[in-house]
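FW: tagging you since you asked about this chain on Friday. Here's the raw sequence from the shared folder, copied in full. Didn't touch anything.
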Amino acid sequence: MTSDEEDYVLVQSSPISDSISMSSLSGPTSPRTPSPLHPRDRCLIKNLDNNILAKIFLILASIHRPVVGYGGYSDMGFISASHVCHVWRTVMLACPELWVADVLAFPSDDAIQTILGRTRDLPLDFDLSSVHAQSASWCTTLCFNLLPRIRTLKLSAKPRAISHDDFNQLVRSIIAEGAPVLQSLDITQVSIRDADYFPDLEFIAPRLRSLRLHGVFFPVLSAALTFVYLKIGGPYLQLHRAGANVLDALRGSPETLEHILFDVVHHTPSPGQTILPGIFGEEIHLFNAKTVCFRATDLEVMRPLQLPPAAFVYIMLYVPVVRVVEDAHDVVIDRMVSLLLTGGSYALSLNAERDHTHLSIQSTPQREPVWRTREHMLTARAQKVARDLYDYTPLGSGITLKSVEPGLLVEWHPPVADENRTGGELLYVLLELLRHAISAVNSEDDLFESIRRLDLCVADDLLTAEWMDMLKSYTAVDTLRMHIGSTSLLNALATQTSTLLPNLSALILVLNNLDDVEDYREHQRVEGLMNTLESIVLGRLAAGRDISIEYVRLEGTSKSRVFAEAVRERLRVYVPQVEVALD
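HL: got it, structure written out here
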């Protein structure tokens, strides 16, 4: 190491003349000019131009930030690269973009001032969620003084960090002052024992795009706000006594909000509890909402929200499935109806497992044949997008916002109350809920016409009469995905060709270990399933209509391969396309 490098420490100040931005790294004042290279030497790190090195360091800084933990633990992160050689150090000190997120990385006034000087006048990213207690007071003062420069701000009152009083005072000061360049704000009141906090102030942040509030709620005015996450920790009665409204954070940006997320973590309604009407204020029309996600034990917070038909709504409820039907939640029912009234083509997917139950209505693309789009994959993608949104932050999350087709996805994660119900019983409840929603309007037949694809993949069955009753209105369905265990449904499809799903043209079957046949009775059952499938195809051909089964796909485990291949051989004579897609 040279003498110049031996003198380098983190807090060493850099002359202003040494600080240059990314745009100037490739200019005529570059510290070095690469000499002509032999082709095999061009990829060596030592021969990279300064602007390329700076881009590499920016990527390194995004994935390896410096950390100073408790008990003396520390990690210099990307800063360690500045100790490699004089050239690397020069490039890093001359790139202010490298330092904007690490002003508070080290609990030292000198280190903070040094790194702050290296940022020049660029917008800053401040994280006060893990600042050390010994420097908390100084850092909160610095944060407030630099508020006109702060681009992203994360703040929480964690133990051994910012005290609760300092936290509340800083929040009030920031809201009162306003933030002219702030784009992302994340405020968390960590302790669930603390009452939700409502500063009686209005926050003006004209460039704010992302807002995450946990236990602290206030009105926000921004012409750029597109993402809001609200986490409510206290019971509704406490919210009412506070005389404030958690939804005030939405009311200032009804025309720009696109992604709205809720977590209600503490409200467990007692039997007979009455929730005061209007506790969450007047209706809010979110004209351009694309995604609304909600996790709770009830839907009270969502009642004031008025959403466009093109929005995707994700609801996760921690209640028994049957309670939704008994309570006739108007939020779910109204959303179903508003979707189907728009026309178009929708896929209805129902899952009725004991530990996870869902009802999904998803808009489907119409530019390709029905069997090219797998209905259950639409639901899986919607689930992933919704769950990713809860982890989304504009900078550093690694998650990009993705669009989802218009639709509704309701998940139930029920307590013990649903454990004794079979999959068939839960499926019946879901079908009854949908029928109740559609029967609430006059144009019942028109709404069912929008459902073209049906996914009933439940490893259980209903009575034949129940299938006939529940599916009698689904006359427009052209694609059905079902489990091979629903033998009553298979028999009904084979015998009721003119009344049960009369326009069916694509059949997807999920198989389960049908090759593990050990006795004669099981062999007879499997042979009977093959005969039933053949009867479904032949019955629709014999009906003499233009529509017949044109596509069959067999999904499931590899332990059903013999059965699947036998079915393919029997059906390929009558069906244009038979596909085996086993794991």
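FW: Residues 76 and 571 are 66 Å apart (CA to CA).
HL: agreed, and The chain is about 30% helix and 20% strand.
FW: great, closing this out.
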